[in-house]
Amino acid sequence: MNLVATLFVSIAMIINKDFQAIPREARDYEFGEVKYYVVLVTTAIVWQFLFLGLIGIIYCSSSLFAGIVNALLLPLTEVAAVIAYNEKFTGEKGMALALCLWGFTSFFIGEYKKVRKPEPTIEPTEDLSSHSNLDV
């Protein structure tokens, strides 16, 4: 899945000549050219680990749970951006944060209730030992 996505994006970048902009962006990067490439490579590696982890969650659990974990990343990203980049915490961010956390919490409460529910016991309807004409 990641290979196809990488090929698709790379072909689009070649057609748009976006790869030619990378050296220019590196020269203009505030913290230096070397740090630009370090950030670029590190970001690519972290994304690969993220998607590998999501595939692992799907394999070991379910795609629903992977979607829930992925939805939890949105509010974490918003909170990290507010803290790290001193962004304003707007109403839209607050609403997205509340909805994501609500969905995440609802999923876990539902799973908790499903696990805690006692299994029904089956009671025998008649006693077979009282029958005297059974062939054994």
UniProtKB/TrEMBL annotation:
<dbReference type="GO" id="GO:0005345">
    <property type="term" value="F:purine nucleobase transmembrane transporter activity"/>
</dbReference>
<keyword id="KW-0812">Transmembrane</keyword>
<feature type="transmembrane region" description="Helical">
    <location>
        <begin position="95"/>
        <end position="112"/>
    </location>
</feature>
<protein>
    <submittedName>
        <fullName>Purine permease</fullName>
    </submittedName>
</protein>
<keyword id="KW-0472">Membrane</keyword>
<keyword id="KW-1133">Transmembrane helix</keyword>
<dbReference type="Pfam" id="PF16913">
    <property type="entry name" value="PUNUT"/>
</dbReference>
<keyword id="KW-0813">Transport</keyword>
<dbReference type="GO" id="GO:0016020">
    <property type="term" value="C:membrane"/>
</dbReference>
<comment type="similarity">
    <text>Belongs to the purine permeases (TC 2.A.7.14) family.</text>
</comment>
<dbReference type="GO" id="GO:0015211">
    <property type="term" value="F:purine nucleoside transmembrane transporter activity"/>
</dbReference>
<dbReference type="InterPro" id="IPR030182">
    <property type="entry name" value="PUP_plant"/>
</dbReference>
<feature type="transmembrane region" description="Helical">
    <location>
        <begin position="64"/>
        <end position="83"/>
    </location>
</feature>
<feature type="transmembrane region" description="Helical">
    <location>
        <begin position="36"/>
        <end position="57"/>
    </location>
</feature>
